[in-house]
Amino acid sequence: MSDPARPVPAGTNLGPCIAMTAQRPSRSRKLPGIPVLGVPFLAALLALTPAPAAPPAADSVARAPQAAEPVRAAHGMVVSEHWLASEAGRDVLAAGGNAVDAAIATGFALAVTHPSAGNIGGGGFMVIRFPNGTATTLDFREKAPLRAFPEMWLDESGKYSSRIHHNSLLSVGVPGTVAGFDKAHRLYGSMPWERLVYPAMAIAQDGFAVSEGLARGLQRLTTREGAHPATVAAFSRNGTPYEVGDTLRQPDLAKTLNRIMLGRRDGFYRGETAKLLADEMRKGGGLITEADLELYQARERAPLRGTYRGYEIITMPPPSSGGVAMLTMLNILEGYDLKAMGHNTSPYLHHVAEAMRRAFRDRAEYVADPDFVDVPIQRLISKEHADELRRTIDPRHASTSAPSDVAQGYESLETTHFSVVDANGMAVSVTYTLEGGYGVGVVVPGAGFLLNNEMGDFNAGPGLTDDTGLIGTTPNLARPEQRMLSSMTPSILAKDGKLVAVVGSPGGRTIINTVLQVVLNVVDFGMNIQEAVNAPRIHHQWLPDRLRIEENGTSEATLEALRAMGHTADMGGQQGLAHSIMIDPRTGERLGAADPRNPVAGARGH
Ligand code: DON
Predict the structure, then answer these.
(1) From 415, 431, 465, 558, the catalytic residue
(2) Which atom of ligand 1 is nearest to the CA of 436?
(3) What angle do helix axes 346-366 and 322-333 make, rounded to 10 degrees?
(4) pLDDT by residue (tens digit) across 13-33?
């Protein structure tokens, strides 16, 4: 099934492909508000805490994770949402590129093969751990255009409009992905830039086989009411939906990638691409101008670091809330013997859900773009703060979430995560997104790429908090050049100075909880990385006060036990796509675990 991306050795003369826009491809591809206590109170609190309720007998029939083995490789590994993109990254590793090089190649290839979330029109985060144990992050989150303002989601009558907020050109943030990849490459890449963009361009030009999931997604995108003409042109055959096995070619996207290959970030933020994007904005009532594009800068930020049972967690700081919230949850859970409770039993799920509830409450209250808002990060991720929160957890009864405080907003389930480890042990964890599936659904005419609707991650407007799900708190309001709050949680685990695992997931707010549970599965339950990824997951986000368990995620008896504790619990659906890598501590092999929730995801090593 494998058809490696057309090989372009490092340093290859790229003349022919640079002229590619005027040529036919050489061959057709057949590619398938909490005070901190100054003293650690943990021991005292544990002594005071009543024991958790014993699991009902039938809890033991909670579904055990299927035995499953990851893909093994001696040198390097890439795991992503599409096997072709994993192969593009793997080939870069095999040709001597490092993990940052491979991540860039994979990210560009996903922009072609996974158009619902892979992107150049969106943004995201990259966490890098170097072989010597130092680490950094790149923030290439979209930001608000210069003309943004907090009340921009109100219609003419002054009423909040979800359509304007999530589904209009006003919902498009200034894209960050190309600037992020450019910066990552300048700072830490080792291969020629052209070598990293080329595979994506080749796939866009030559095409690839449409999978069942993609066929379904593109049909919905191109046949929905008000489908944008350029989107219909790019993702259907003159209005006829693609079928499984058809070849999807994206010639306009190939031209844009060619400009990026030649001009790096200027190939996107200036010249032809910038003009096409800004023209579409002017035509459709969007705010982004050439000046916004010119101004965009990716930011290098120090990672958040925490510990969990002797493991070091390296993760993304704000403007993602993911790292802060996950570390808060881990700190709370460190005070319990989760293993003794048993995986996915009712006491276990209860305690995990209560930790989630509390971390999400903090998130709503405190976290936003740190360039605009003073976020008390160190306090929120401190062990002392977790001790305080843990003390409020009743081991036998669910707490309640107070909607009078702050509420959640719209959340879609489209983003994508990929993990990379190279032969030297450099590790890269990337999550990037268009926000909604296919973003705002608008392809930039002539440029072939989809625009994000990330401005929807800003709060609805000043004072617009209510219990229907709107948030109007101040920190995360749309302001010129502010980055909208995210939940993306690309993370890396280490122990005793050695790399252990690379993890992350899509899924809006569920991201944080998915990544948390992969970590718990590895650390507390000793699962191998594939079992840890496969295992059923749960989600609680404070508001709405609801505990969701994945389809077939537990037994009816456990569900009933949770309800008896006071949880509004139900089971159904899927959560996350946590493409992860672990290092075999014995052999040093790279163990790649593609999440089986998407059949075209792939782990590829060498
Ligand atoms: O940045 C965020 O947290 C959201 N815009 C991500 C959206 C998402 O994950 C949807 N996912 N699958």
Answers:
(1) 415
(2) 10
(3) 140
(4) 222 222 222 222 232 232 223
